[in-house]
C-alpha cells in the first residue's frame, strides 16, 4: 500500500557521509543518514546519552559519532556501541526509484501521545 | 542473419496466428524474448518438452541474445552473432512460435488474450510476462534530442558505434558524455573509449558505483579510469542537454559546458510494468509474484527484472535463473519455490577487477576485515557478523569473489578461518590449523618481508639480533616496514619470534584504523605526495573502509597543512563545530562569536550584535574569556541568516569553534595605561590580522600585554608577547586549561615586525609538527623547548622559511567561512530535508 510509506524526496538530497533532518510537528525530529558506502538509515535525532543531535555527528562505516560526547551509535540498530549503553529508535526506511521512503507508522510513532 | 524482420513475420506467419491451432495442448504465451523469458522456456522444455504449446512475442527484431554481452560487442571484442543464445533453429526444433518486432500492447484477462502492436490477437491458457526493465531517463531539457540514448539493447549499441565512426563535426575524435557512473555507465564509457571516443562520465555522487563500492574502492576505480584517459566529474548535476536538431553537448548546473555528439544515459532502470498495470495485476515496485512466479492472476506468471518478489526487485541475471527454475517447477507441478536471491556484482571492464556482494555498510556487531596492498593496487574488504560473512568488496584482485560469495550464501561459520579469511581461499584452507606465527616461522631466510625496501626475513632477524628490539628500531635500521607499512604485521611477528616476549611496544598508533603513529602518517603524506583521504588510507593500509571519527579529522588537517591552496577540504571529516562554523551547545543549538580584532569593538558592531540577539531570540549573550561576545541559543537553520546580519556590519567569524587561531587578547598598553611600554593593543590587532583563519592541530590562543604586569595573561597562552621598555619578550607553550602551564620564554626581540615574524614562524612549526589534538603545551614538553629555540631563534634561514610557508598558507585560508554560507553555500547543512505535519485529528 502506497500510503504506508512517506516519500521524503530524492536520494540526491543527502550526499554520502552526511545526514539531514526531518522535523515532525509535535514529535521527535528524525535524522536521515547516508553512509560513505551509500546506505541510508533513519534514526530519531536524539542521542541516548544526553540527547545530542546525531545528525551533526561524523559518519564512518555504519556508525555515527555523537557530536556532544562522542558516543558511537549504530545506524542500523540505533544502539550505543562499545562500553556505552542506550538505544535510539530506528525508523524503517526504503529506497525506491531514487527516492527515500520512511515507514509512516514509525514516523508518526514519534509523535508525543 | 539469424533474426527475422517485422515484415517477414507479418506476411509469413499471419495465418497460423489467427486460425485456432489444432494443437490441443495448453497454450503458453510469453511476452518478452529477453534473458528471463527465454530461459524460463528452456527450463520448462528441460522438464517437460511436450506439455505446452509455446508462443513468444518480442519487441526487438532479434532472436534471443545475451544482453550482458552487449558490452563486449560495443568494445569490439564480440560480434552480435557471437552473443546469440538461441537461434531460429532452436525455436523451430522445439515448435516455438517466435514473433519478433511486434510488442504486445494489451492483455485481456477475462478473454485470456493478448493483443500486439500490429493488431494480432492471440489467446492463451497461461501467460508469462517477461518484459524486463525500462531505462530511466532523467527529465532534463533536450532528453529527446537525436543522439541521446540509453544502454539497453542492440539498437543502442548500433547508435553508439555509428557515433564513434562519425567522429566530431570538425573531423576530430568524437566526444561522448555518459551520464551515470554506475556499472552500466562505466561499461558504456569503456566501450566508447575503445571505439576511439573521448569520454566524459558525469556522476552525481562523490564516488563511482556507490551502491556497490565503498569510498576506498570507488577512489581506486576513479583513479584507474582517469589513467585510461576518461574524464570523470563527480558531484556533477546535469541541467540540460543542448543542440540544434541533434545533441551538441551537456550543461551542468554549475554552468560547465561539455561538447558531445552522443549522450548515453545510464542512471538506472525501472521494472517495465505498464502492460501489467493496464491489465489490472498487482504492482509494487514491479509485478508482484509469489514463490512460483505467479501474479495476482493465477493464469498469469511473470519473471525477470519486471517482477517484485517479497519486496525485492533484481537487476542482474543470476537471480533470474533461480526464478526461472522455480517457475518451470511450478508449471510442471513440482514444488520448489523461489526464496529470493543474494546478488553479487562483478565489473568486467577489461583489466579492472571489481567485485561486490551482500551488505558492506557495516554497523553494529559487524567486523570489517580490510586488506590494502598499495603496491599491487589491491583493496579487499570482508564484512563479518556473528562469525558469518555478510558482505564483500574487492578491488584489483577479485579471484576470491566467488568464494566469499559462496560463504555468504551458505552462511557458513568462519570463526576457524577468521584470521586468514582476507587472504583468500587458497590461504585460508591451506592448512586448517595454520597459525600466523607458525606460518612466519616456517618462512625461509630469503623470503621477502618488505617489498618496498627489499628486505628479507634473514635481514630482519639479523637486525633484531643486533639490538633493534622494537618496530621503530627495525624500521630505523634495516628499513623493513618503513615505507608503505604493509609488512608491519609480519615484522612484528618476526620480532615476537626472535625476542620471545621482550618486544617493546611501538609508539601509539593514530587510532585503531592504522598501525602508524601520527608522525609516520604526516611524514608519509609529504614524502609520497598524497593528496586525498582515500589515498592515504589505501597507501598506508588502513584497516577500516573509511576511517573513524578520530583519524578522519586528523588526516583532513594533515593534508590541509601539507597542501595549502591545493587540497580540497573534506567537510565529512570535520567535527560538527567546524562543519557548522559555530559552537554546538548541550541542547543542540549553536553559539556564535564574531571576531573582535584584538578585543576592540565599536557602536556599529555592538548594535549589529544587539539586533541579532533580539531578532533571533538568543536567550543569552556572554563576554568570553577571550574578550569577545558570544551569542547563545541559535538554531542551525538560522545560522546563515545570523551570519549574513553580522557580515553586513563588517564582522567575520571568530573561529571560536575551531582547531584554529581563536583570539588575540590584549591590554590597553601605552595608548592609555600609565604603565604601558608599547602599543600592545595595536600589536594584538596586527597579530590577529596575520593569523586569523589558520587551521591548527588544536585551538590556539595569543595575547599581548603592555608591560610585565601582564593584564592580558600572555604567559598562559600558546603564543604570548610581553612588552618591555627595550622591546618584546616572546613566550610560548602556555595553557590555561585543566593542567595550567606557564609559558617558556622563547627569546626577546627589539621590533614589532620581529615579534610578528617570530609569531608566524612559531605557529607554522606547530602546525607542521604537532600531532592532531596536541596543544602547544604538551607538544613543547614532548619535543623540548630547546628544540623549538633551535628552529626559531638559532636558525635564521629556517625561521624565515617557516614564516614564508605560514604566510603562503594564510593567503588561501583568510576567507570568512560565514560569508560563503550566508551566500547560500552548503545550504543543505542548515535546512531540514522536509517536514512532517500530521493532519489535525477531528
Ligand atoms: C549492457 C548491459 C550489461 C549488463 N551486464 C550485466 C552483467 O554483467 N551481469 C548481470 O548479471 N547482468 C547484467 N545486465 C543486466 C541483465 O542483462 C538483465 O538483468 C537481464 O537481461 C534481465 O532479463 P529480463 O528478461 O528480465 O529482461 P530483458 O533481457 O531486458 O528482456 C526483456 C525483453 O522484453 C522485451 N519487451 C518489453 N516489453 C515488451 C512487450 N510489451 N512485448 C514484447 N516484448 C517486450 C524487451 O524488448 C526485451 O527484449 C546487463 C544489462 C545491460 C543492458
Ligand atoms: S599589562 Fe601593563 S600596560 Fe597592559 S594594562 Fe596591564 S599594567 Fe597596563
Ligand atoms: S549526548 Fe550523545 S554522546 Fe552525549
What is shown here, in short?
Chain A is mostly beta strands.
Describe the overall structure.
The complex is a heterodimer of chains A (113) and B (842). By secondary structure, chain A is mainly beta. Chain A is built from one helix and nine strands, in the order βββββββββα. Chain A has one helix at residues 104-109, and strands at 5-10, 18-22, 30-34, 40-44, 58-60, 63-65, 72-74, 93-96, 99-103. Chain A is globular and about 40 Å long. Chain A starts with a strand and ends with a helix. The model of chain A has no long low-confidence stretch (mean pLDDT 88). With 842 residues, chain B is an alpha/beta fold. Chain B contains 28 helices and 36 strands. In chain B, strands 3-2-1-7-19 form a five-stranded parallel beta sheet. In chain B, strands 9-16-10-11-12 form a five-stranded parallel beta sheet, with helices on one face. In chain B, helix 3 packs parallel to helix 10 (317-331) and helix 8 packs across helix 18 (533-539). The longest helix of chain B is centred in the C-terminal third of the chain and has 18 residues, at 752-769. Chains A and B meet through strand 1, strand 2 and strand 5 of A and helix 20 of B. The structure holds flavin-adenine dinucleotide, iron/sulfur cluster (SF4) and FE2/S2 (inorganic) cluster. Flavin-adenine dinucleotide binds next to helix 3, helix 4 and helix 10 of chain B.
Write the layout of secondary structure elements.
The complex is a heterodimer of chains A (113) and B (842).
Chain A: E1 5-10, E2 18-22, E3 30-34, E4 40-44, E5 58-60, E6 63-65, E7 72-74, E8 93-96, E9 99-103, H1 104-109
Antiparallel strand pairs in A: 1-9, 2-3, 3-4, 5-6, 6-7, 8-9
Chain B: H1 6-12, H2 14-18, E1 26-31, H3 35-48, E2 52-57, H4 70-75, H5 88-93, E3 97-99, E4 104-108, E5 113-116, E6 121-123, E7 126-129, E8 133-135, E9 148-150, H6 154-166, E10 175-179, H7 183-194, E11 198-203, H8 215-227, E12 231-234, E13 238-242, E14 249-252, E15 257-259, E16 262-265, E17 269-271, H9 274-278, E18 287-289, E19 300-302, E20 307-309, H10 317-331, E21 344-347, E22 354-358, E23 366-373, E24 378-385, E25 388-395, H11 401-410, H12 425-428, H13 436-441, E26 448-450, E27 455-456, H14 457-465, H15 471-477, H16 488-499, H17 518-527, H18 533-539, H19 551-562, H20 576-580, E28 583-584, E29 590-592, H21 603-615, E30 620-623, E31 629-634, H22 639-648, E32 661-666, H23 680-691, E33 700-705, E34 719-724, E35 727-732, E36 744-749, H24 752-769, H25 776-783, H26 785-792, H27 796-813, H28 817-822
Parallel strand pairs in B: 1-2, 1-7, 2-3, 7-19, 9-16, 10-11, 10-16, 11-12, 18-20, 32-33, 33-34
Antiparallel strand pairs in B: 4-5, 5-6, 8-17, 13-14, 14-15, 21-22, 22-25, 23-24, 24-25, 26-27, 28-29, 29-31, 30-31, 34-35, 35-36
Helix pairs in contact in B: 3-10, 8-18, 14-16, 17-19, 21-22, 23-24, 24-27
Amino acid at each position: 500500500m502506497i500510503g504506508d510509506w512517506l516519500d521524503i524526496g530524492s536520494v540526491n538530497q543527502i550526499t554520502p557521509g552526511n545526514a539531514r533532518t526531518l522535523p515532525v510537528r509535535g514529535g521527535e525530529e528524525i535524522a536521515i543518514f547516508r553512509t560513505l558506502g551509500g546506505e541510508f538509515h533513519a534514526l530519531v535525532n536524539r542521542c541516548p546519552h544526553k540527547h545530542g543531535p546525531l545528525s551533526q555527528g561524523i559518519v564512518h562505516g555504519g556508525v555515527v559519532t555523537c557530536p556532544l560526547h562522542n558516543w558511537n551509535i549504530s545506524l542500523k540498530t540505533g544502539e550505543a556501541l562499545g562500553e556505552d549503553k542506550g538505544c535510539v529508535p530506528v525508523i524503517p526506511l526504503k529506497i525506491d526509484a531514487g527516492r527515500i521512503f520512511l515507514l509512516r507508522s514509525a514516523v508518526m510513532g514519534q509523535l508525543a501521545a | 542473419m539469424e533474426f527475422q524482420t517485422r515484415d517477414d513475420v507479418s506476411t509469413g506467419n499471419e495465418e497460423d496466428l489467427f486460425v485456432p491451432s489444432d494443437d490441443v495442448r495448453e497454450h503458453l504465451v510469453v511476452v518478452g524474448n529477453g534473458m528471463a523469458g527465454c530461459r524460463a522456456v528452456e527450463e520448462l522444455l528441460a522438464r517437460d518438452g511436450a506439455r505446452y504449446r509455446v508462443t513468444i512475442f518480442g519487441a526487438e527484431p532479434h532472436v534471443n541474445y545475451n544482453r550482458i554481452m552487449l558490452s563486449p560487442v560495443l568494445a569490439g571484442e564480440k560480434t552480435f552473432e557471437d552473443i546469440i543464445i538461441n537461434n531460429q533453429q532452436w525455436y523451430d526444433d522445439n515448435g516455438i512460435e517466435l514473433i519478433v518486432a511486434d510488442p504486445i500492447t494489451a492483455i485481456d484477462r477475462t478473454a485470456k488474450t493478448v493483443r500486439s502492436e500490429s493488431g494480432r490477437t492471440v489467446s492463451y491458457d497461461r501467460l508469462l510476462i517477461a518484459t524486463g526493465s525500462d531505462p530511466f531517463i532523467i527529465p532534463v531539457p533536450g532528453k529527446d534530442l537525436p543522439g541521446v540514448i540509453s544502454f539497453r539493447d542492440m539498437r543502442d549499441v548500433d547508435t553508439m558505434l555509428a557515433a564513434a565512426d562519425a567522429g566530431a563535426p570538425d573531423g576530430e575524435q568524437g566526444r561522448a558524455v555518459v551520464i551515470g557512473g554506475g556499472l552500466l555507465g562505466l561499461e558504456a564509457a569503456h566501450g566508447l573509449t575503445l571505439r576511439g571516443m573521448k569520454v566524459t562520465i558525469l556522476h552525481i555522487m562523490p564516488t563511482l558505483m556507490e551502491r556497490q563500492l565503498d569510498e576506498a574502492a570507488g577512489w581506486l576505480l576513479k583513479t584507474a579510469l582517469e589513467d585510461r584517459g576518461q574524464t570523470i566529474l563527480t558531484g556533477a548535476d546535469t541541467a540540460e542537454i543542448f543542440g540544434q536538431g541533434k545533441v551538441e553537448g551537456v550543461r551542468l548546473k554549475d554552468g560547465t559546458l561539455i561538447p558531445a555528439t552522443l549522450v548515453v544515459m545510464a542512471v538506472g532502470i525501472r521494472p517495465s510494468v505498464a502492460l501489467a498495470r493496464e491489465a489490472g495485476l498487482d504492482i509494487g515496485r514491479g509485478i508482484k509474484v509469489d514463490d512460483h512466479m505467479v501474479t495476482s492472476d493465477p493464469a498469469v506468471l511473470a519473471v525477470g527484472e519486471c517482477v517484485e518478489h517479497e519486496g525485492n526487485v533484481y537487476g542482474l541475471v543470476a537471480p533470474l535463473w533461480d526464478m526461472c527454475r522455480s517457475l518451470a517447477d511450478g508449471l510442471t507441478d513440482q514444488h520448489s519455490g523461489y526464496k529470493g536471491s543474494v546478488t553479487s556484482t562483478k565489473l568486467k571492464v577489461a583489466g579492472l577487477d571489481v567485485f561486490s556482494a551482500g551488505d558492506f555498510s557495516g554497523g553494529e556487531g559487524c567486523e570489517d576485515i580490510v586488506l590494502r596492498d598499495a603496491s599491487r593496487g589491491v583493496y579487499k574488504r570482508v564484512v563479518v557478523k556473528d562469525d558469518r560473512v555478510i558482505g564483500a568488496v574487492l578491488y584489483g584482485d577479485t579471484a576470491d569473489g566467488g568464494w566469499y560469495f559462496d560463504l555468504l550464501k551458505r552462511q557458513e561459520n568462519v570463526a576457524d578461518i577468521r584470521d586468514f579469511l582476507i587472504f583468500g581461499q587458497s590461504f585460508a584452507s591451506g592448512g586448517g590449523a595454520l597459525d600466523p606465527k607458525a606460518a612466519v616461522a616456517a618462512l625461509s631466510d630469503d623470503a621477502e618481508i618488505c617489498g618496498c625496501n627489499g628486505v628479507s626475513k634473514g635481514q630482519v632477524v639479523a637486525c633484531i639480533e643486533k639490538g633493534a628490539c622494537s618496530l621503530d628500531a627495525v624500521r630505523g635500521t634495516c628499513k623493513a616496514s618503513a615505507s608503505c607499512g604493509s609488512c608491519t604485521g609480519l615484522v612484528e611477528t618476526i620480532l615476537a619470534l626472535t625476542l620471545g616476549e621482550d618486544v617493546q611496544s611501538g609508539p601509539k598508533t593514530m587510532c585503531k584504523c592504522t598501525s602508524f603513529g601520527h608522525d609516520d602518517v604526516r611524514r608519509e603524506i609529504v614524502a609520497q605526495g598524497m593528496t586525498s583521504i582515500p589515498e592515504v588510507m589505501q597507501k598506508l593500509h588502513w584497516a577500516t573502509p573509511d576511517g573513524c571519527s578520530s583519524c578522519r579529522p586528523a588526516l583532513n588537517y594533515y593534508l590541509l597543512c601539507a597542501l595549502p591552496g591545493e587540497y580540497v577540504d573534506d567537510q565529512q571529516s570535520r567535527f560538527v563545530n567546524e562543519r557548522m562554523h559555530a559552537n554546538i551547545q548541550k541542547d543542540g543549538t549553536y553559539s556564535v562569536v564574531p571576531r573582535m580584532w584584538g578585543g576592540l569593538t565599536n557602536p556599529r558592531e555592538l548594535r549589529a550584535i544587539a539586533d541579532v540577539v533580539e531578532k533571533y531570540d538568543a536567550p543569552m549573550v556572554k563576554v568570553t574569556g577571550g574578550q569577545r561576545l558570544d551569542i547563545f541559543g541559535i538554531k542551525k537553520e538560522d545560522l546563515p541568516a545570523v551570519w549574513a546580519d553580522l557580515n553586513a556590519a563588517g564582522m567575520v567569524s571568530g573561529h571560536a569553534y575551531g582547531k584554529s587561531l581563536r583570539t588575540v587578547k590584549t591590554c590597553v598598553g601605552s595608548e592609555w595605561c600609565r604603565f604601558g611600554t608599547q602599543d600592545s593593543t595595536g600589536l594584538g590587532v596586527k597579530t590577529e590580522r596575520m593569523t586569523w583563519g589558520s587551521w591548527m592541530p588544536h585551538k590556539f590562543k595569543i595575547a599581548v600585554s603592555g608591560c610585565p604586569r601582564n593584564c592580558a595573561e600572555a604567559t598562559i597562552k600558546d603564543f604570548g608577547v610581553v612588552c618591555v621598555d627595550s622591546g618584546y619578550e616572546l613566550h610560548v607553550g602556555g595553557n590555561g586549561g585543566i593542567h595550567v602551564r606557564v609559558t617558556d620564554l622563547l627569546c626577546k626581540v627589539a621590533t614589532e615586525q620581529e615579534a610578528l615574524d617570530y609569531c608566524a614562524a612559531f605557529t607554522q612549526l606547530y602546525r607542521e609538527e604537532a600531532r592532531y589534538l596536541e596543544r602547544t603545551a604538551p607538544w613543547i614538553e614532548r619535543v623540548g623547548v630547546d628544540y623549538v629555540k633551535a628552529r626559531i631563534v638559532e636558525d635564521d634561514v629556517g625561521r624565515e622559511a617557516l614564516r614564508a610557508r605560514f604566510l603562503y598558507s594564510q593567503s588561501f585560508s583568510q576567507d570568512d567561512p560565514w560569508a560563503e554560507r550566508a551566500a547560500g553555500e552548503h545550504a543543505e547543512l542548515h535546512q531540514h530535508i522536509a517536514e512532517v505535519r500530521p493532519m489535525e485529528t477531528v
